[in-house]
Amino acid sequence: MIGQEEVNLILILQGYDGRLVAISERLENLSKDRAEIEKAIEIEKKKVADSKAMIFDAKMKLDKANLELESLNQKLMELKIRQASVKKSTEYNLLQNQAAAMAEKIEQLEDEIVTSLYSSDDLKIVSDKMGMEANLRINSLNDELSRNLSLIEDISKNISELNLKIDGLRKNLVNRDLLRMYDLARRGVKRMPVVIPVEDGRCKGCNIRVSNDILVALRSSGSLVQCEACGRLLYGKEQEQENGFDDENG
Question: pTM above 0.85?
Answer without folding.
Answer: no
